[in-house]
Specification:
mainly alpha; 7 helices; Helix Hairpins; elongated
């Protein structure tokens, strides 16, 4: 093969690979469209089947009508023959023969149409099952495609995500350290202020129960346990004091 022939073959191979790549990237869209096309074809097949059934029923009605006419003409022909009108009876016989010929022509057609209906019905049902199976497979492929795209995105950013997580953890640790230092600064400032104002010493004295004006639980318990002091009796009034008080009350009341 000449160099130009090889280059041409290479170009054809590249074109095939490019076309295959395009088909692969759009495989799900192509499948969806093919399923829609199959559904449309199935709709037409059902319409054609319905038309075939309708024509077969028309033929069946015609055959039923022919048979009814034969029954009627048979009775009429017998009556004509019984009267001795042989010519009329022969006309009736010819009409019956024509009807028989129509029936013999149409009955095979009806049988063929019934057979065709059965085959078409089976084919439509089988195609419906294949379409439904393909539709379910496409749905599974769509879900898998979505999951794999998400996994690919996570994998593509995995290394960067690890570095970002490490950086975020370092930042969090620095924030905790700053908060701990700030808390210690606040506590130290409070302790210095208590020492400056003597509040820390007062707190120690209060806890020890020796701060002036403070009453400890032990002091209260000691008072509860001590015996109650006896009440002192009032002194008896002097002789004549009660009469004097009575006279005074009368004078003030008059």
């Amino acid at each position: 093969m000449s160099i130009w022939g090889k280059l041409f073959t290479l170009g054809r191979a590249g074109g095939h690979e490019a076309a295959t790549a395009v088909v692969d990237r759009n495989a799900i869209r192509i499948l969806d469209q093919e399923i829609r096309d199959a559904d449309a074809a199935q709709g037409k097949a059902r319409d054609n089947l319905a038309g075939l059934v309708a024509r077969r029923r028309v033929l069946e009605n015609e055959v039923a009508s022919f048979r009814a006419q034969i029954e009627k003409y048979m009775a009429s022909g017998r009556a004509a023959y019984a009267k001795g009108d042989e010519a009329l009876a022969r006309q009736v016989a010819q009409r019956i023969a024509d009807l028989d010929a129509d029936i013999n022509l149409k009955e095979p057609q009806i049988a063929d149409m019934r057979a065709a209906e059965e085959k078409i019905h089976q084919a439509v049902a089988a195609t419906d099952r294949r379409i439904e199976t393909l539709r379910r497979e496409v749905e599974v492929v769509k879900v898998n495609e979505s999951v794999q795209r998400a996994q690919a995105a996570v994998a593509a950013t995995g290394a960067g995500a690890g570095n970002k997580l490490g950086s975020a953890a370092d930042s969090l640790q620095r924030i905790k350290e700053r908060q701990a230092v700030r808390g210690e600064q606040i506590r130290a400032a409070g302790e210095l202020e208590d020492r400056r104002t003597g509040a820390d010493l007062d707190e120690k004295l209060r806890l020890a129960g020796i701060l002036p004006g403070q009453t400890s639980a032990d002091d209260v318990f000691a008072r509860l346990a001590a015996p109650a002091a006896p009440q002192q009796a009032l002194p008896a009034p002097a002789p004549g004091q009660l009469e004097h008080q009575a006279e005074t009350s009368k004078t003030q009341g008059g």
